[in-house]
Amino acid sequence: MQVFLIRHPRPQVAPGICYGQLDLPALDVDTTAAALRAQLPAGLPLIASPLQRCRVLAEALHPAPRFVPGLMEMHFGDWEGKRWDEIGIAALDAWAADLLHHAPPGGESAAMLQARAVACLDALAAEGLPACIVVTHAGVMRAALGYARGLPAAEWSQLRFGYGECVALAWR
User: d(Cα 59, Cα 57) in Å, to the nearest integer?
Assistant: First the structure.
């Protein structure tokens, strides 16, 4: 299955805030959608995270997008909505020491995010879709590309994607 992974537009959030599943509005949606329309094949099904920063772009790109919770960003639990500097150096050091398996309190680890993202894309492939557009988050994109390319967590966790960036991926 050919997947066009798209990162949502820039969210409306102050710099330095931890947000994963925090539901934030998006900025520059119309500009982002116009740029993407020129890159994407017409007529493909579109599946998206239900968080509003993805939802609004999905609705601008497709008349009937489908929303799948498995495509939501990593859940940072108790850290959601806090400034990174409020979280505390000890907590951030513990997370950095085991980025793949350490989960913030009440949240999920990168390994859990990757398992969820892979299961979601596998389910889409099982539907028999030859190709689709997926509007999601940088964490899901990192996890999916890392899995598809067989990258170790230390590498895939460092992948970077700009807001509104589209990456084509052959899934399975």
Answer: 5
pTM above 0.70, yes or no: yes
CB 144 within 8 A of CB 169: yes
Is the separation of the CB atoms in 30 and 12 below 8 Å?
A: no
Cα–Cα distance measured from residue 91 to residue 150, given in angstroms and rounded to the nearest whole number: 29
Q: Are 74 and 110 in contact (CB under 8 A)?
A: yes
Q: Give residue 149's identity as a one-letter amino acid code.
A: R
In tens, the pLDDT along 110-133 reads 999 999 999 999 999 999 999 999
CATH code that applies to domain 2-170: 3.40.50.1240
Residue 112 exposed, middle or buried by CB count within 10 Å (0-12, 13-18, 19+): middle
Contact 23, 42 (CB under 8 A): no
